[in-house]
Amino acid sequence: MPLLEALESLLAQKALPFVGQVTNLPYSERMKQFAPTWYAQVAPLAGESEESARLLAEVKSASQERMKRELASFLQEVARLRPLVLFFDDLHWADVSTIDVLSFLAGKFDALNVLIVVTYRPSDMLLAKHPFLQIKPDLQSRGLCRELMLEFLSEAETSEYLALEFPGHYYPAEFSKLIHAKTEGSPLFMADLVRYLRDRNVIANTSGAWKLEQSLPDIERELPESVRGMIERKIAQLSEDDRKLLTAASVQGYEFDSAVVAQVLNLDADEIEERLEKLERVFAFVKLTNEAEFSNGTLTLRYRFVHVLYQNALYAGLRVTRKATLSREVALALDACYGVQSASVANELALLWEAARDYGQAADSFLLASGNAAQINAHREAVQLAERGLAALLKLPETPERDERELGLQLTLGFSVQSAQSWAAPEAGTAFNRARQLCRQMGNDPRLFAVLNGAASYHVVRAEFEIARELSEQMRQLAEQAQNPALMVVALNRLAEVHSSGGTDFPLARKLFEQAIALDRLEYHPSYLLVSNESQGITPRRQGCYCLWMLGYSDQALAMAQEAVTLAERLSHPFSLGAAYLGTGVIYFFLRDWQASQKEFEKVFALAEKYDLGDLLNWAIALHAMSLAFQEPNEATLDRAKQDIASLRAKGVTMSMTWCLASLGEACWRANHSEEGLAIIAEAQTLIENIEERSYEADIWRIKGELLLQAAVDDAQAEAESCYQKAIAIAQQQSTKIFELRATTSLARLWQQQGKREEARQMLAEIYGWFTEGFDTADLKDAKALLDELQSQGARGSSPTVREGFH
After folding, report:
1. Which one in 90, 126, 317, 701 has a CA-CA gap of 20 to 30 Å to 612?
2. Which of 417, 414, 412 is nearest to 433 (CA)?
3. Hey, what CATH class is 393-603 in?
C-alpha cells in the first residue's frame, strides 16, 4: 500500500523542533500519540508488551473513519511549522483504500499544511477502471485537485533529464538531440534507450565522469529511427516463423496460451512451447506467467507480452482479412479448449468474434460476458460490454433472432446502469423503454416481468409515481397469471414502495410489505436476482421499516431493519447487503441516533470499495454528511450536506428529495440559519406540489414553524401555530403518528410559552398516550419531558420555561 510506504519513509526522517508542549518529539512518537492505529502498522512493535497488544487490538477494531481522522491529525501535527509534501508515484497501482484516504485528506486541505503530489499513467487508469477516476472530477470541481498533463519531452527537457541522470557528464550537445529524435520524447522509451546504451557500455563512467565511448555516427547507425522504429527493428530481428507465431498470439491478446497458438498454426504443442521459451530467453518478447490445463484436458503455458506495445505493433501489422481469419480461428480454438466452460472466457470470445466480423456470435458472447460481470457486481464493466454487444447488433439485419438478442442485452444494460450509477439514470430508462418495445414486438416473452420491474424502479426513484403504479399493477397481474410466489413478492414490493414513497397510503403500504415478507422464502433469492439488482427478500424489510416508523412503531421498525441485515449477511449478496445497511442507517437517522446512523453508512462505504452500489452509495454519502450536520450544526457541515444532496439530485434522484430538503431545513434551524432554512423549506413545498410526493409533508410544516419562531418574523407565533396545526392535520390524515407527535410537541411548547399550559398538556397527553413502544427514542423522550414539565407547572402554577425544541 503506497500510503503505508509514505508513512514509513516519514518515520525514517528526523523530527523537527516544535514550539509548544511537544518539543523535539520524534515522528514515531507523534504518530503513536495522534495516530495509534497507523503507528501499529508502520512502526515495529517491540515484543509482546501490553501496549503492543493494545495497539494491535485497536487496529482490528478501528473503523475507516477513525483511521482517516487519525491520519489527518498526525499530518496536521507534523506540518505545523513547515509544509509537508506527500509524493505517490504510479498511483494507477494504488488500492481503493489509498484513494479513499487521499480523497479524505483533500477535503481537509483548509486545515492541513500539506501538498499531495501523485503521478499516474492515464491509459492504465482507464484500462483498470481505477477508483481514482471516480473521485477526480469531484475534487477538481471543489478546487482541491489540479491535473498537469505531461506531454512528450522536448529536446531541452531531454537534455535536462540526461543532466539529472548523469550529473557532470561530458556528452556533446548533439547527443541529447539524437536521443530525442530516436524516442520522439517518450519518457518510457527514452529511459529504456538510455539504459540500453549504458548496459552496452556506449555510455560509461570513466575516471569519475560520464562520457561517450563511441562516436555519434557509430551510435546513430545502431539506433532505430523512432519509437515505432525501435519496436519494428526488434520485430525484424525475428525469423518469419517466430513472427507468425507472435502475430497469432497477439490476436488472442496481451496474454495468450501456447495451446491456442498451436491449434491456430496447426503445429505441435511441444514445438510452440520451445519457440516461446526462446522468444522469452533470447529476445525478451514474452514472459511465462503460469501453467494450466483446459477443461478439455489440454495442457497449456500462459504467456504475456513483455510490453503491450509489442502486442499492439504485431496486431496492427495484420491486414483486415487476415485479422478476421485469425480472430475466428483463435475464437474456435478457445471455444474448443474451454468446452462447456467457454462462458468463463466470454469477454475474450466476444472481442474475437467482433474482430472476425461475426456480429451475431459477438453479441451472444458480449451478453454472456456482461452477465458474468454483473454476477460478480462489476456493473460498470457489464455496462460497457452490453453497450458493445448492442453496437454489434446494429450491423445485423432486423430479424426476430436479433430482437431476441437485443432484449437480453438491454435488460442487462438497464439493471447494471442502475447498480453502477443510479436507479434514476437516463440510460437505464432508455434501456428499459426499448426492452418494453421489444417485448411488445415479440409477444409473450417471459422476461417482460423483469423489464417492468426495472422500468418501475426507474420511474419511482424519479418520483413519477403514477407511471410506476401502473407498471407495478401489470407486474402483479403477471405474477398472478404465473401463480409464481417469488414474482408476487417483487410485485408487492414495488406496489408498496409506490404507496409509501408517494405518501398516498402508509397503512396499505405496510400491509403490502407484510404480505411480501410472508411469501418470501430463502430459496427464491436466485429468482429475485433474475429480475432485480437487489434480493427482494431484503426490500420489504428495509423499506417496510420506514412505514412502521412513520406509523408510530419505532421498536418494530428498528427490529425489521436489523432483520434485513441478518438476512442479507446470510445471502452474501453485496448489493443487497449494502441496501440493508443503508436501511438500518436511515432508521437510526429517523430515530435521531446520528452516531449509530453514521456507522451503518460507513458499512456501505466499506462495501463500495469492492463493489458497485449505485444509489446505495450516493444516499449513504448524503445521509452521512447530514448526520454530521445534525451533530455539529455549522457552516462547514451544512455546506457539505448541501453539496452531497445536490450531487444526488444531479443523478436524477427525486424520490425522498422532499425529506432531504426537510432535513436540510431542520439542520439550518439547529445552526441558527433560519433565513436559509425557510428558503429550503419553501423549495421543498414547491417540490411537493410538482411531484405529488407527500410522505414528509407533515414534518415539513412542523420544521417551517420552528424556523419562523427562530427568525422572529412578524406574527411569528401565529404563523408558527398555523404551521403546526397543518402538520398535525396532515399527519392525522396519513396516520403518520410520529409526525403528529413531533408537531404536537412543538405546538404544546408554543402554547406553554403563551400560558395555555392545560390545553397543551391535554393535547400532548392524548397523542403520547397512543404510543405503545419507542419510549427510549428521542421523539418520545422529548415529548415526555415536556409533558412532565407541563404537569409540574400546572400543579405549581409556575411560569413556563422556554425550551429549545427537539434535540
Report:
1. 90
2. 414
3. mainly alpha
